[in-house]
Amino acid sequence: MNASTHQTGEDIKALLKEWQQGLLAKDADRMTRHYSEHVVFYDATPPLQHHGIEAYRRSWELIFPHLPDKLDFEAYDSDITVSGDLAVVHFLNRLIDANTKDSATCGWVRVTVCFKRMDDGQWKVVHEHVSIPFDPMSGKAVFTHQI
Amino acid sequence: MNASTHQTGEDIKALLKEWQQGLLAKDADRMTRHYSEHVVFYDATPPLQHHGIEAYRRSWELIFPHLPDKLDFEAYDSDITVSGDLAVVHFLNRLIDANTKDSATCGWVRVTVCFKRMDDGQWKVVHEHVSIPFDPMSGKAVFTHQI
């Protein structure tokens, strides 16, 4: 990894950190500061896909009332790849109740985020995919609380 | 999009087409011809993540016996972004029974595929994420057969 690529990886980490801080503060404006107007979002819950930053923002605003007052964020097996004007990040994460240390939502989710550097030099999220697996025999989502 | 980027987008389409033809032929070797040894795969069914081309191949070999004899493949809302040595593709797709035209598995899935151009110039899939959403009230996977 050369110096320039390394710098870009650090830039992407900083954007992810800001998204995470926005989430812990339940601040959708802060979470979406680095999202493209035209982001295509595959969420863990329906619909099959969301188009646009407003739909992304609303999906979080619907979740906020169901989250505990004080949240923590755990990530695992994170990978960042950057080349040219694209960056792809994938990781497992879960939200936990900072007081009880229990999962705050559905346990561990799989997250893939794609950033694109725009003409003004700013990195924006153009695609995000968040999910949990399902059991094809029972048709039920499979929650994982420990990995 | 300049000529070089356009060419690369066509290269990626050709690799996707080969994967699709491998799937229709239930030929896991052909499907994995352009996969990295170290691919990280988030599948629609457990576990949370698979590491490596052999785990990817096995996941398909387990599905093949449950598929109808004659398959077709439908894709919708496909997007390909290429820059430097990275390419990200996302789309909705479903497998259908070519005779009945019904969904062959769980209906429409969301698919994100990340390709990386390796040192030898060959593009390889380094990450893939396939999922369907779940209903947080019932805990059940939400199958979509018509979009």
Question: Can you walk me through this structure?
Answer:
Two copies of one chain form a homodimer. Chain A is α+β, with helices and mostly antiparallel strands and 147 residues long. Chain A has one domain: Nuclear Transport Factor 2, Chain: A (Roll). Chain A is built from three helices and six strands, in the order H-H-E-E-H-E-E-E-E. The first copy, chain A, has a six-stranded mixed β-sheet, with helices on one face. The radius of gyration of chain A is 16 Å and the shape is globular. The model of chain A has no long low-confidence stretch (mean pLDDT 93).
Highlighted features:
homodimer; 147 residues; alpha+beta; Nuclear Transport Factor 2, Chain: A; six-stranded mixed sheet; 3 helices; 25% helix
What's the SSE blueprint?
Two copies of one chain form a homodimer.
Chain A: H1 3-24, H2 28-31, E1 35-42, E2 50-51, H3 53-63, E3 71-83, E4 86-97, E5 109-117, E6 123-131
Parallel strand pairs in A: 1-6
Antiparallel strand pairs in A: 1-2, 3-4, 4-5, 5-6
Question: Quick summary of this structure?
Answer:
The structure is a homodimer of 147-residue chains. With 147 residues, chain A is α+β, with helices and mostly antiparallel strands. Chain A has helices spanning 3-24, 28-31, 53-63; strands at 35-42, 50-51, 71-83, 86-97, 109-117, 123-131.
